[in-house]
């Protein structure tokens, strides 16, 4: 296969899917991804959502294309096998084992962390299946301050990191993120970073918006500043269009720069 882009990794919320738009997933991105898939490319939705939340939203959006892989909660990998999504168990079991060991170490410090946050901010703190400490801050300013505090705490715990998306944050193992999960999918498919496209809009996308994992980088107009800066710094494309409109524009541009006219993708030569 000679497609310049063989693996497409898109964040979901704000990048592929825009919940409050009339058309949450524009026709154009569906057509582009569908045609690239028909030519052999693989598409990954790389998201912080869990399986049920993503499946429910995808079903409601009634889109015409189906992802080949899912990266869920920024760390678990699932592969579409024709009828449903099957966990990539070798990766997912190692991921679960490493998180369990790490969070056992963190658990003793949770009361102190919660007390620090509660003394200063109106925030929602809870535990879920993926992190013993999850945050929903009242606003992005509060989230920034709490994020700084949590980052300082992480300095004292090897492999602990904070995954932040808007006002949401949780703990994670540093070895598992959108970037390393994308690299694992690429390793399984034997696709090198020069044939990988990644698009995202928020801080939790930074690990995959890296030339270490993908040479074709895109941020839509609505991306946060640090994401736009990172993408620009690595010669990626920052669109003036929001959400998937920007991703489609970036995908077309990268394909054109690689010498593949979009019309050839849509209508491959006979
Ligand atoms: Mg997003």
How would you describe the overall organization of this protein?
This protein has helices at 27-38, 51-61, 89-107, 110-120, 140-154, 178-189, 225-233, 243-257, 262-266, and strands spanning 7-10, 42-46, 69-72, 76-80, 85-87, 123-128, 131-137, 160-165, 168-173, 196-199, 216-219, 237-238. The protein has 9 helices and 12 strands. The strands form 2 sheets. It has an 8-stranded mixed β-sheet, sandwiched between helices. A 4-stranded antiparallel β-sheet has the order 6-7-9-8. The chain is 40% helix and 21% strand. It is of the alpha/beta class. The longest helix has 19 residues, at 89-107. β2 (42-46), α2 (51-61) and β3 form a beta-alpha-beta unit. The mean pLDDT is 95. The chain folds into 2 domains: 7-74 and 177-266, HAD superfamily/HAD-like (Rossmann fold, 3-Layer(aba) Sandwich); 91-173. Magnesium ion is lined by residues 11, 13-15, 201-202. Magnesium ion (MG) is lined by residues 11, 13-15, 201-202.
Key phrases:
single chain; 270 residues; alpha/beta; Rossmann fold; 2 domains; 8-stranded mixed sheet; 4-stranded antiparallel sheet; 9 helices; 40% helix; binds magnesium ion
H and E order: EHEHEEEHHEEHEEHEEHEHH
Number of domains: 2
Strand order of the largest sheet: 5-4-3-2-1-10-11-12
Shape: globular
CATH class of the largest domain: Alpha Beta
Going by CATH, the homologous superfamily of the largest domain would be HAD superfamily/HAD-like
Number of strands: 12
Helical content class:
40-55%
Brief account:
With 270 residues, this protein is an alpha/beta fold. Helix content is 40%, strand content 21%.
């Amino acid at each position: 296969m000679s497609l310049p882009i063989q693996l497409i990794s898109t964040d979901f919320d704000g990048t592929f899917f825009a919940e409050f738009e009339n058309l949450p997933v524009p026709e154009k991105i569906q057509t582009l991804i569908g045609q690239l898939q028909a030519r052999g490319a693989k598409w990954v939705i790389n998201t912080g959502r869990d399986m049920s939340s993503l499946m429910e939203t995808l079903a409601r959006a009634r889109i015409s294309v189906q992802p080949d892989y899912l990266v869920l909660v920024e760390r678990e990998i699932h592969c579409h096998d024709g009828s449903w999504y099957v966990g990539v168990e070798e990766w997912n079991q190692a991921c679960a084992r490493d998180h369990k060991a790490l969070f056992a170490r963190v658990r003793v410090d949770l009361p102190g962390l919660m007390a620090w946050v509660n003394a200063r901010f109106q925030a929602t703190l809870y535990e879920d299946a993926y992190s013993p400490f999850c945050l929903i801050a009242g606003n992005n300013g509060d989230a920034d301050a709490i994020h700084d505090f949590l980052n300082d705490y992480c300095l004292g715990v090897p492999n602990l990191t904070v995954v932040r998306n808007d006002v949401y944050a949780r703990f994670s193992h540093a070895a598992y993120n959108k970037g390393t999960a994308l690299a694992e999918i690429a390793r399984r498919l034997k696709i090198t970073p020069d044939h990988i496209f990644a698009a995202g809009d928020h801080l939790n996308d930074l690990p995959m918006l890296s030339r270490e994992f993908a040479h074709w980088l895109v941020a839509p107009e609505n991306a946060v500043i640090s994401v736009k800066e990172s993408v620009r710094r690595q010669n990626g494309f920052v669109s003036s269009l929001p959400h998937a409109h920007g991703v489609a524009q970036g995908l077309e541009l990268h394909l054109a720069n690689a010498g593949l006219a979009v019309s050839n993708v849509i209508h491959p030569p006979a």
